[in-house]
């Protein structure tokens, strides 16, 4: 462990203890050696005793810096692990980071491009357009076509800082696993590993470029979403160059109303976009917070979204998609038994789960929802509550489902902010029903058969030969099995015969010995002993040899 790592570890520990995070551990999870260690750091005292636990954790993460702020933001979506109070506090974390020196940004950009900025761009703005914990954005004009672009560049040495902090997080998670025991519900090691996957993906801007291109291609002909064009030839692991867009931040409701935006239609399009990305494309933007979404200034009566920052994308397996769609439909139909079955069938909870008890728990969560109008029901919170209920039944939360839950909460929150009367279910139900019909109906079977047609047309000429080979192999196999059976029966016969002779030999030898000891006629005892020896020799020689069948 390097001196820098030790210094950073001490800084993290001191901040954690200044906020009294050690006191949040239940007494039974703080063994004597942990308490002794805490007493040895007597100069690091809790300075925030009056604040609740969730707020203290939020403030500590905020002071620790960008990596921990993002970790807290991710942790706020794990409602299956945290209470509402803690999740709410962590959701308030803000990623506000002062910009770094523009000279360093210029230098980093030129290193990636292997050329000077002036040779490729005009009007490069030294003042950053935006600054975040991982990257910084500058604007310029592309020389080749005169179009405005943005250049997103990673902060200097951000990779080393993040890797060092991740290592420290992993070590802390391992310690917590030891303290909490193997059956703890917090699963700190799993949470840190999920975070590692997410943040390491954000460090590769080339991957973000590819994600942006894929999302753009999925919606090229859409009137609901516009994704900026990526200049792939100018994009590198530490630099992303893409088209500059001009829109209204989705959170600026006053500006949207001022231009006469159709907010009801906009909210409905947001819901449709979510379900299209998840169920049609199986590739959804998993970081759709207000800072990444803008609204077009053109066509306010038929507005469209502008999506940015495709660093975090989510996908689901076909099984997860089907089970998720069925979950929503079962909820609407108040079929709680089916919801419970789906959780077990999908592997989200153990197959040993008491289905009746789980069904009742789901009913307790869902039934009160139907006392409200549909436009007041939050389906993001329904999914969240179902995960929280399943936690009591040892749910195995998949990372992709956590991303999905977070995205659904974002979309629903934005939709209701734009249009409070949004009936998410009325908008989503036709989409889900059509999707389910396409997946399990006759059309789905025909489509799958059509998709497999080229494969089967290629294999069709080989089928007669394959059938002949398999029949011949089956006949040979039957013949070899019969031979093995015959050998086994002969072996058993020999074994029985040998055992019979050896047992007879033992009886005769015993009888001969008894007769000899009692001074009976000698010829009788000698006959028994002689016959016993003869039977023993014959039995021993007739023993079958051990063979492998």
From TrEMBL:
Annotated keywords: ATP-binding, Cell inner membrane, Cell membrane, Kinase, Membrane, Nucleotide-binding, Transferase, Transmembrane, Transmembrane helix, Ubiquinone biosynthesis
The protein's annotated pathway: Cofactor biosynthesis; ubiquinone biosynthesis [regulation]
Origin superkingdom: Bacteria
An example Gene Ontology biological process: ubiquinone biosynthetic process
Domain ABC1 atypical kinase-like: 93-342
Chain segments annotated as transmembrane: 499-516, 522-540
Its membrane topology: Multi-pass membrane protein
Protein name: Probable protein kinase UbiB
Organism: Shewanella fodinae
């Amino acid at each position: 462990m390097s001196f820098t790592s030790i210094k950073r570890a001490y800084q993290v520990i001191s901040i954690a203890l200044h906020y009294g995070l050690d006191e949040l551990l239940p007494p039974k999870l703080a063994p004597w050696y942990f308490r002794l260690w805490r007493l040895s750091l007597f100069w690091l005292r809790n300075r925030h005793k009056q604040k609740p636990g969730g707020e203290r954790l939020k403030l500590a993460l905020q002071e620790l810096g960008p990596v921990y702020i993002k970790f807290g933001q991710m942790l706020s979506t794990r409602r299956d692990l945290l209470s509402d109070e803690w999740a709410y506090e962590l959701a308030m974390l803000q990623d506000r980071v002062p910009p770094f020196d523009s000279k360093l940004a210029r230098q980093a950009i030129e290193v990636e491009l292997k050329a000077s900025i002036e040779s490729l761009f005009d009007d490069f703005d030294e003042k950053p357009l935006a600054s975040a914990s991982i990257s910084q954005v500058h604007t310029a004009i592309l020389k080749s076509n005169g179009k405005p672009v943005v250049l997103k560049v990673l902060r200097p040495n951000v990779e080393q800082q993040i890797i060092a902090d991740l290592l420290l997080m992993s070590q802390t998670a391992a310690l917590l696993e030891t303290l909490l025991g193997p059956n703890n519900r917090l699963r700190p090691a799993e949470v840190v590993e999920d975070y590692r996957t997410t943040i390491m993906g954000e460090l590769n801007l080339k991957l973000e470029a590819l994600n942006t291109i894929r999302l753009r291609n999925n919606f090229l002909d859409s009137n609901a979403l516009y994704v900026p064009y990526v200049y792939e030839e100018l994009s590198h692991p530490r630099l992303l160059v893409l088209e500059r867009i001009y829109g209204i931040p989705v959170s600026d409701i006053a500006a949207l109303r001022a231009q006469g935006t159709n907010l009801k239609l906009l909210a409905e399009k947001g819901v449709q976009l979510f379900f299209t990305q998840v169920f049609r494309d199986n590739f959804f933007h998993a970081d759709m917070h207000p800072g990444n979404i803008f609204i077009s200034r053109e066509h306010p009566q038929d507005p469209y979204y502008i999506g940015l920052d495709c660093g975090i994308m989510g996908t689901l397996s076909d099984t997860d998609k089907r089970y998720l769609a069925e979950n929503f439909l079962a909820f609407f139909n108040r079929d709680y038994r089916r919801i419970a079955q789906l959780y077990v069938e999908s592997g989200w909870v153990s197959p040993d789960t008491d289905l009746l008890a789980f069904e009742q728990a789901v009913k307790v969560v869902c039934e009160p929802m139907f006392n409200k109008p549909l436009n007041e029901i939050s389906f993001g919170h329904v999914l969240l509550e179902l995960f929280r209920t399943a936690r009591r039944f040892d749910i195995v939360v998949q990372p992709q489902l956590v991303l999905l839950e977070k995205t659904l909460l974002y979309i629903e929150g934005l939709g209701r902010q734009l249009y409070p009367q949004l009936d998410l279910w009325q908008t989503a139900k036709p989409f889900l029903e059509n999707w389910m019909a396409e997946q399990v109906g006759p059309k789905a079977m025909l489509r799958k058969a059509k998709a497999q047609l080229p494969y089967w047309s290629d294999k069709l000429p080989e089928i007669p030969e394959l059938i002949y080979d398999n029949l011949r192999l089956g006949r040979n196999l039957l013949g070899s099995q019969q031979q093995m059976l015959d050998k086994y029966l002969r072996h058993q016969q020999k074994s029985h015969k040998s055992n019979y002779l050896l047992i007879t030999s033992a009886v005769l030898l015993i009888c001969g010995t008894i007769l000899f000891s009692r001074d009976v006629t000698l010829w009788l005892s000698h006959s028994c002993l002689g016959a016993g020896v003869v039977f023993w020799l014959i039995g021993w020689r007739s023993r079958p040899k051990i063979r492998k069948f």
